Amino acid sequence: MILYEYPFNERIRTYLRLEHLFVRLSELMAREMPLDHHFALTTIFEVMDVAARADLKSDVLKDLDKQKQALAAFRGNPAIASSVLEQVIAQLENCFTTLNTQPGKAGQPLTENDWLMSIRSRVGIPGGTCEFDLPAYYAWQHRSAGSRQADLQRWAATLVPLAESIQLLLKLLRDSGSPQKVVAAAGQFQQNLPQGRTFQLLRLALDPALGLVPEISGNRLMVSIRLMRHEDDDRLHTISDDGAFELTLCS
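^ thats the sequence. predicted structure below, dont judge the formating
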């Protein structure tokens, strides 16, 4: 199944973008080719750009505390496994403490590294990191894979508290939804959202064998999904037959 996710607010949209970058960074750092490590470094710069938003750290800390308070209310509930509950609460507390004690924004210590910032300033220029532009960076790319990986791990360490916090928050959010199987009649699906409940994330699972692509739009009142097919003219066309998929709304 191909899983698509659609955020209902800007905060969750930012979380998903950061998660996407952290997954990419982890995969690239584990590889050994210089080109992979180049893109790992540019991914670190992308994370710094996204995390530069002034209220991001504050939003993450508020969400961690909100989740902790919500789960703490289940203490003593016989239907809840207390050991699992306490483990999750401990994870939330640890993420909150670690992120809160980190000075400034994610990756801020890296901004004091003139060598890294010289690379960052050239990355956005097409071909701007050639050997004649950045000879020291070119030399770094010729070091051993282990040496480059050690450097990347050291630089990425400043991003770990944010990465772990967002990973935990998104896991809890995803676990809050219950999947339901639905059918888009003639490729179109609409559903009114229950009033009095705020949803933050939509998850859509689609069988890749169908060859379909969903176009999702939504707000606090309604969700609309249109199933498309990528044709030979490299354009998306609306299908005329029914299409089944799995829908999950998370709050």
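The CA atoms of residues 216 and 225 lie 5 Å apart.
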